């Protein structure tokens, strides 16, 4: 019984700080751009606040329903609505969230889907790059190399872990100004955040393989203890 309790405790120690345990989710208001409901598509200029919870920044974007160009292969990643961050054509457009509630010092995993499109009758719109800011600070660029050879929507989920710096957080996404990114079709949808309850701060920023190795090492260690306990 004692051995069992020891092993249970060791397992708990080995896993704490290494495994992301979702504690809560869906805290980005209207992260899927489903509100307000639109029938087709509409252009939005910088300063526009018509998309619930978001302000358009940088350049004109398109607020779209899958009904608009779904027949050509262009559909949302989540629900039926999404953003197209190049408007009709052009780079640098995006959206900034209204400040929403976070817990200061807490680890969060931000995930969002970026879309590249192959439009029926027109061909591939090319690779896409989306730039991310958190609380006004640039946090990186995310690339989706289009993998389609026929009409369709190529959505890819991007992940970024960070520590909230205050009681509210602001997210901003823009299509990249880089010419490596399409100026005609950069999708954004399904922005969500999950609180990472079990990730301790010393591990923040470690690349996934390192965490996996540490986890593997921890499990190997447990195996050794189990072998020892069996003797
Ligand atoms: Ca959506």
Q: Secondary-structure blueprint of this entry?
A:
Blueprint: H1 2-15, E1 41-44, E2 54-57, E3 61-65, H2 66-69, E4 81-84, E5 94-97, E6 100-101, E7 107-119, E8 123-124, E9 128-134, E10 137-144, E11 152-163, E12 168-169, E13 171-175, E14 187-195, H3 208-230
Antiparallel strand pairs: 1-3, 2-5, 3-4, 4-14, 5-13, 6-12, 7-8, 7-11, 7-14, 9-10, 9-13
Bound molecules: calcium ion.
Write the H/E string, N to C: HEEEHEEEEEEEEEEEH
Low-pLDDT stretches are: 6-16, 221-231
Let me know the number of strands. 14
Unique bound compounds:
calcium ion
Instruction: Round the mean pLDDT to the nearest integer and report it.
Output: 85
3D architecture notes:
This protein is of the alpha+beta class and 231 residues long. The chain has one domain: Sandwich (Jelly Rolls), CATH 2.60.120.260. Helix content is 18%, strand content 35%. The protein is built from three helices and 14 strands. The chain has helices at residues 2-15, 66-69, 208-230, and strands at residues 41-44, 54-57, 61-65, 81-84, 94-97, 100-101, 107-119, 123-124, 128-134, 137-144, 152-163, 168-169, 171-175, 187-195. The strands form three sheets. Strands 1, 3, 4, 7, 8, 11 and 14 form a seven-stranded antiparallel β-sheet that branches. The protein has a five-stranded antiparallel β-sheet with strand order 2-5-13-9-10, with no helix packed on it. A two-stranded antiparallel sheet has the order 6-12. Helix 1 runs antiparallel to helix 3. The chain is globular, with a radius of gyration of 21 Å. The model is unreliable at 6-16 and 221-231 (pLDDT under 50). Calcium ion (CA) is lined by residues 32-34, 76, 78-79, 81-82, 189-190.
């Amino acid at each position: 019984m004692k051995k069992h309790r020891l092993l249970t405790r060791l397992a708990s120690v080995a896993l704490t700080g290494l495994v992301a345990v979702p504690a809560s989710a869906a805290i980005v208001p209207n992260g899927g751009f489903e509100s307000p409901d639109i029938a087709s598509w509409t252009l939005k200029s910088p300063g526009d606040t018509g998309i619930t919870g978001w302000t358009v920044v940088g350049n004109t974007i398109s607020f779209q329903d899958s009904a608009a160009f779904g027949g050509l292969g262009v559909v949302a990643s989540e629900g039926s609505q999404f953003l197209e961050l190049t408007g009709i054509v052009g780079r640098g457009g995006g959206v900034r969230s209204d400040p929403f509630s976070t817990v200061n010092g807490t680890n969060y995993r931000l995930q969002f889907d970026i879309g590249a499109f192959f439009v029926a009758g027109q061909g591939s719109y090319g690779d896409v790059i989306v730039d991310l800011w958190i609380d006004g600070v640039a946090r990186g660029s995310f690339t989706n190399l289009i993998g389609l050879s026929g009409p369709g929507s190529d959505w890819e989920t991007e992940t970024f872990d960070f520590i909230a710096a205050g009681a509210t957080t602001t997210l901003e996404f823009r299509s990249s100004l880089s010419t490596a990114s399409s100026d005609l079709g950069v999708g954004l949808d399904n922005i969500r955040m999950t609180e990472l309850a079990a990730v301790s701060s010393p591990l923040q920023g470690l690349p996934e393989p390192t965490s996996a190795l540490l986890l593997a090492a921890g499990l190997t260690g447990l195996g050794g203890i189990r072998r020892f306990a069996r003797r």
